[in-house]
Each structure stands twice: as C-alpha cells, then as structure tokens.
Write a sequence for this structure.
C-alpha cells in the first residue's frame, strides 16, 4: 500500500532506538496551520511488507499487534526484536488529506559483564601469555580494547572474534597475546566499546603473577 502526499499538513517522526524485549516509543507529530479533524486511518509499512493498519473510528487494528497508536500520530512497539530494525513508511489520513513520512528504528541489547581469563595458570616474566576478554548477549556488534597498568593501549597485540548467535545477539571474544611477557605491565584493563565507539563497560585483570620484580629509585 502506498499513498501519495496530498495533505495540507506535515507528518514528522523522530528516529527511534529500542531495547530488545522492551517497549519502544516512536514520537510523531502533525504540523499544520489548520487543526485537522481526528485521524481516520494510520498505517505503517516496512520497506518490504505492511506492519499494521489502524482505523480509530471503529477501533480496528489489523497486522502486527505489537504496534499501538498513542496520542494521535505517535506509536509504541512492544517486545522489540532484532528483526524490527530498519526503515519504515508511516501514513495517516485526516480531513486535510493523506501524508506519509519515513523514519528508522535501531535496536540495542546490553552485553554481559566483561570476563577476563588466562590460559596459563600464572603469568611469568619472559614467557608467553594469552589473556582473553569475553562479553555476550549484546547487539549490535562492538569491539574490545586492552590497556596495561600505565594506560598504554595494547589492542594492536589482540585479535577480536565477533560471533552472531542463532538469536541474533553477538558474542565478543578478544585474545591479547604476548610472546615475551613482563609482569610490570599488569594489571590489564579490558574495555568494551559499542558500535558508536562509546565506552560501555570495563574489567581489570586479577590474575596471579610470578617473576622477578625490580624497583628503581630516582
């Protein structure tokens, strides 16, 4: 279904960001010099298929029942899913005609707390060492950075694996490797960055160290 824009008003909708399994508010408004009569029909389509049609006068909704019309043109989407992410065409009909607008929905899910593990039983000066930092159950994909105790970024020595599970959520696993390890670099901080490169969490290694320590007095 597609309507041409024949209205004497403008329909505006803000981009929406929702959390998986929660309710998302989609803010829309009508801009007009003349107050139109109540909306007689709301309809929403993705770029591939219809979502719903709502006829307020008879209180009839057909299509995806997770969508609800609230406060005139604004919408709610209940039980957000990854498949809801994308672009939408929203159409309404009033006494001033039919108008349409396109908006987007982005989906997020919070990752679990970062967990740091060590393959070896202990970290020994001069020997090989591998540290792992893992996070799971999040969306969209992000990245992991490593820092040592002097706040030096060690990420160039790490490899990152992003795995999308069957439910669409991501598991991140970062491996930080040292061919010749120095205990003075510890402890290490593992930092999770989302897809906008914003920090969302971190964890500090609490691992057993073994080796020779040198103190320098200046």
């Amino acid at each position: 279904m597609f309507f041409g824009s024949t209205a004497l008003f403008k329909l505006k909708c803000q981009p929406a960001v929702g959390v998986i399994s929660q309710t998302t508010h989609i803010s829309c408004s009508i801009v007009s010099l003349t107050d139109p009569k109540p909306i007689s029909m709301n309809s929403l389509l993705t770029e591939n298929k219809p979502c719903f049609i709502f006829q307020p006068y008879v209180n009839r909704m057909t299509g995806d029942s997770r969508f609800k019309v609230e406060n005139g043109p604004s919408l709610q989407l209940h039980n957000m899913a990854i498949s809801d992410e994308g672009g939408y065409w929203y159409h309404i009909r009033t006494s001033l005609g039919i108008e349409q607008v396109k908006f987007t929905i982005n989906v997020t899910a919070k990752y679990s707390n970062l967990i740091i593990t060590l393959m070896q039983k202990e970290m020994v000066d001069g020997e090989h060492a591998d540290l792992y930092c893992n996070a799971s159950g999040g969306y969209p994909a992000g990245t992991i950075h490593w820092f040592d105790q002097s706040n030096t970024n060690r990420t160039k020595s790490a490899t990152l694996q992003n795995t999308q599970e069957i439910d669409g959520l991501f598991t991140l696993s970062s491996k930080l490797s040292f061919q010749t390890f120095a205990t003075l670099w510890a402890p290490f901080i593992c930092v999770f960055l989302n897809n906008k490169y914003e920090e969302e969490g971190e964890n500090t290694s609490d691992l057993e160290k073994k080796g020779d320590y040198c103190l320098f007095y200046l």
